[in-house]
Amino acid sequence: MRLDKLLANMGYGSRKEVKQLLKQKAVTVDDDYVKDAALHVDPDKQVVAVYGEHVVYTEFVYFMMNKPPGVISATEDLREETVIDLLEPLHQHFQPFPVGRLDKDTEGLLLLTNDGVLAHNLLSPKKHVPKVYYAQIDGVVTAEDAEKFAAGVELDDGYLTKPGKLVILRSAQQSEIELTIQEGKFHQVKRMFEAVGKHVTYLKRLSMGSLTLDDSLALGEYRALTPEELDHLQSQQ
Ligand code: URA
């Protein structure tokens, strides 16, 4: 790959800006200063550095975000703030997109990647990737609701959901629950509760397949997946 392309791909600026870096003797390849933007380098075999910092070439990025309420799970929008707006420019440069959608008011685990194959596999209805949600419910959630969810409930458009596993954490006028579902229909959790006459007042996704939200991430924060997290996600498919 051309040196200027590699550096531009890795977020070191436009090709023009990269040329400036080269001119300033900021770039080394295997410890030799290089000024030639067209030089071909093999990032697997040669060490490229900018101001002495090793440039590790990656094509794919994988981030987990604790999505805050008030932002939408889209890559761009004219009016609304998106989850991509919350990423640093260096990370936006890789053009990640959210894997599936959380509603604007929903919080919690959102995976962002530019790996279309992984995204497709996680979202494919055939793969039954379980997603776990924590929710607060206006209304008394009962064992009967859990039985109904286990059998599948009919949504407002007549769709019969696959079985969902409902764990009641607190049954009161304001209930707290955890729900595991294996599909991702539009507003699914909210609509499942509407189907039993109850209303979700707060919703947070805790996990998706083997990936669990890192609870040290504050709302709006994100971090790269660890190699182990990525391995597990890829191997469960
Ligand atoms: N179910 C919902 O109702 N909303 C979400 O954001 C995710 C699942």
UniProtKB/TrEMBL annotation:
GO CC, any one term: cytosol
GO function term, MF aspect, one: RNA binding
Keyword Phosphoprotein included in the entry's annotation: no
Domain RNA-binding S4 per the UniProt entry, residue ranges: 1-63
EC assignment: 5.4.99.-
Main EC class the enzyme belongs to: isomerase
Domain of life of the source: Bacteria
A Pfam family of this chain: PseudoU_synth_2
Matching InterPro entries: PsdUridine_s_RsuA/RluB/E/F_cat, PsdUridine_synth_cat_dom_sf, PsdUridine_synth_RsuA/RluA, PsdUridine_synth_RsuA/RluB/E/F, PsdUridine_synth_RsuA/RluB_CS, RsuA_PseudoU_synthase, S4_RNA-bd, S4_RNA-bd_sf
Keywords from the named record: Isomerase, RNA-binding
SUPFAM superfamilies named in the record: Alpha-L RNA-binding motif, Pseudouridine synthase
Biological processes annotated in GO: enzyme-directed rRNA pseudouridine synthesis
Record-stated family: Belongs to the pseudouridine synthase RsuA family.
Protein name: Pseudouridine synthase
